[in-house]
Amino acid sequence: MGLHTGTGLNRWVKSAEAKTLYAGRLNIGPRLILGFVFIILSMLAADAVILWQFHLVRTQAECLNGIGQKLVAVLRVHTSLLAFHDRLEDLADSQDAGRLVTEGGPLRTAVLEDTRRAMSALSLLPFDLQRDPTILPTLHAVQSALSWQPEAITTLATSGDWRAVHLRLANQVRPLESLTSELIEKVDHDAGEQQAQAVLNVRRVERLVFWVVPLTAVLTLLIAATLGLAITRSIIQPLAQLVEGSKALARGEFQHQVSVTGKDELAHLGQVFNDAARRLRDLYASLQHSEDRLRLVIDTIPAHVWSTRPDGSVDFVNRRWLETTGLSMEDALGWDWGSVVHPDDLARYVDEWRAALAAGEPTESEVRLRRADGKYRWWLTRNVPLRDEFGNIVNWYGTAIDIEERHRAEDALRRSEAYLAEAQRLSKTGSFGWSVSTGEIRWSEESFRIFQYDRTTKPTVELILKRVHPEDAVRVKQTIESASMNGKNFEHEYRLVMPDNSVKYVHVVTNALSDKSGRIEFVGAVKDVTESKHADEALREAQANLARVSRVTTMGELTASLAHEIKQPIAAAVTNAKTCLRWLGRDQPDVAEAREAAARNIKDITRASDIISSISLLFKKGALQRELVDLNELIREMIVLLRSEANRYSVSIRTELAEDLPKVMADRVQLQQVFMNLMLNGIDAMKETTGGGELTIKSEAGDAQLLISVSDTGVGLPLKQAEQIFKAFFTTKDKGTGMGLPISRSIIESHGGRLWVTDNSGRGATFQFTLPRTVAVHA
Questions:
Q1: CA separation, residue 151 to residues 41, 106, 160, 169, 547 (Å)
Q2: Phi-psi label, residue 555: left if phi above 0, alpha if psi -120 to 50, beta otherwise
Q3: Which residues contact 100 (CB under 8 A, 6 or more apart)?
Q4: Which of 41, 223, 420, 695 is 20 to 30 Å from the Cα of 379, by its Cα?
Q5: In the 8-state DSSP scheme, what is residue 337?
Q6: What's the CA gap between 193 and 237, in Å, rounded?
């Protein structure tokens, strides 16, 4: 067996060596797989032999187990039969028929059960273990004999024939014991022979395994060594050439080529290596060309470019840097570049550069550099580190761009901002920006001063409302909310309550801006108008006093006309009173006529009272009191007051009043003064005309404003004096003060309107004024 195995091994080794001659035709993967297949097949063959021997040992062991089962089954029947015989013998000796009858049945049943079990166990054994022809017949004989013996013995015991009982036990039960005893000896002899044969088989298997396992190991090692040597040799030699080629590439020898033959992966790798070497040669040439072009670009770009070593010393500067500074390349390298830095900037700039080197972080700085002509200009320098794959800095690269013009612009901007801040401080006008989408508010320094908040405070809408006067807070909040929703310009004026409880007036004007995304931002100005507000109040008071004086003066001029106008309703009232007394003084008083006369009396007295009330209002001194005023009604009242003056100079008054004219929120007395001035001016202009004149008063309602006009047919305007007549103290009358028209214009303008005069196409002039419809209210 060993000789056969060795011959087969030699033949296989020779075959393997022969196959390695063609290894170059196979890829590395198939070579390795082929070697592993041979190793696995040899191991599987050895394992199959060992497993077959183990199967034989297992079969022998199963055979011994079956013989043991036969022996146990027969022994159990024999033991049970002995117990049956001995117990019946004892009962027969005691001549106790009752106990023999009672115990005989169970004893027989136990023997029969053991016999049945033995037969069942023997029938389950393999066929070759059932070849003994005496076992089963013997067990059948025992079973058949015991099926009727106990009844006969119990019958004899019941009849008291104990001698017959002993004879039957000796002649019929004792022979069964002999049969089972002989059967035991036979089975035991067979078991001995089988055990001897099993021991021989096991020893044979042990010897076989002892030789097969080492031979399998040796064979496996030989196969592995042979295949490994052949495959390794076919791999190492090409790899050595590739390594040598790689070293050549590392040295920059791009002309090197490797000669690897065959069609395996290494051959393909050699071809790839050669192609890569050719490509690298071409790439190097292209890179060299690109580097030359890059250097040309770096030298041409309008900026300074340099590189430094990790310690910060300069190892390259571009030509533009050299041309600008006038230094040579030798003077610019290392740390000698500091000679072109402005002395005031050198220490700071070097400290910043050293700090960046220590931190390994990019740096940016502004520095003044001397040009070749000796002049200094501002430059913005940036330095960034280049790191390798481990994070170590291998170089620094920097640039510098000329920012002289930007620096000058920034200086100019800073000066402008300073001027603006000073202008805002002097004019008490602050600026602000408000982004509606983010809620961010930005204030100028003057805005912080106006609201008296610290510069570190972040402006918010809530912070603004906190300063607003309680009486103005709701209106201001509504204005802000409306602006944030509609995104329209707004302008408003309100009061602030300062921390010392003083009140400040501010005027806010804004302009809405929107970006491409539609987000709204307001830019505006807030002006402290407290002083002007107080000045205006002292002025809306001086003007009021002046207007009152003007009214008093005018009313003095109209004393005769007004006396006549008042005298008429009073005289009528006296007449009506007398008439009433006559109707009542009759013998039969006429109450109805008296009542009618009394009613006319009341009407005339009321008319006189209204005239006196209107006149008293013109003499009243007080602040501006705005209320809803019906302009048409006010025109009619003034016509009543001035009718006598118009009749005195044969001037007729005509009206063209618009129906459903809206009421306006205005000061009634001031508008009375305006109408009185304009109407009296018209009457005065027609004093010298022949045939009298006509004064026409019109009211119109436009889309945005109400228009009132007072036209006369007098002498018209003085030449080129349409605007001069509104100046204070300018008058064309002999006894005029020159204050009527200026006061009238100021009154109209205080109501948001405009007053002007134009020449008529024929005779006379027309005074017109407007009131904004925004303050108009329908009755």
A1: 72, 12, 14, 12, 163
A2: alpha
A3: 88, 91, 92, 153, 154, 157, 165
A4: 420
A5: G
A6: 66
At how many degrees (to 10) do helices 591-619 and 559-585 cross?
Answer: 160
Whether 201 and 42 have beta carbons less than 8 Å apart is answered as no
- Strand pairing of 376-387 and 393-402? antiparallel
Are the beta carbons of 190 and 67 closer than 8 angstroms? yes
Question: Which residue from 728, 729, 708, 716 is spatially nearest to 758, judged by alpha carbons?
Answer: 716
Rounded to an integer, the average pLDDT of 52-76 is 67
How far apart (Å, rounded) are the C-alpha atoms in residues 170 and 151? 16
Per the listing, tokens 């030789």 go with 211
The candidate with the shortest Cα–Cα distance to 396, out of 315, 484, 501, 499, is 315
DSSP 672-715: HHHHHHHHHHHHHHTTTSTT-EEEEEEEEE-SSEEEEEEE--SS
* 493 CB burial (10 A radius; 0-12, 13-18, 19+): middle
Q: Quick one: which of 753, 752, 727 has its CA closest to 740?
A: 727
pLDDT in tens, 103-149: 777 777 777 777 777 776 666 565 554 455 666 677 666 666 666 56
Token pair in block for residue 496 = 């602030």
Q: Using an 8 Å Cβ cutoff, are 139 and 113 in contact?
A: no
Buried b / exposed e over 622-651, threshold 16 CB at 10 Å, is: eeeeeeebebbebbebbbebbbbbbeeeeb
- Adjacency order of strands within the sheet including 376-387: 314-317, 304-308, 393-402, 376-387, 363-370
Q: What CA–CA distance (Å, rounded) separates 206 from 198? A: 12
**Cβ contact 656:696 at 8 Å:** yes
Write down the pTM of the prediction.
0.42
- Tell me the sheet residues that pair with 341: 369
Q: Count CB atoms within 10 A of the CB of residue 246.
A: 14
* Residue recorded with tokens 């017109």: 768
Condensed to tens digits (0 to 9), the pLDDT of residues 343-395 reads: 999 999 999 999 999 999 999 989 999 988 889 989 899 999 999 888 899 89
Cα angle 38-43-46, degrees, rounded to a multiple of 5:
130
What letters, b where the CB count within 10 A reaches 16 and e where it falls short, cover 164-177? bbbebbeeebeebb
C-beta of residue 311 within 8 angstroms of C-beta of residue 393: no
581: tokens are: 């007394």
The listed range with the strongest mean pLDDT (9-13, 277-281, 469-473, 688-692) is: 469-473
What pairing do the DSSP bridges indicate for beta strands 393-402 and 429-435? unpaired
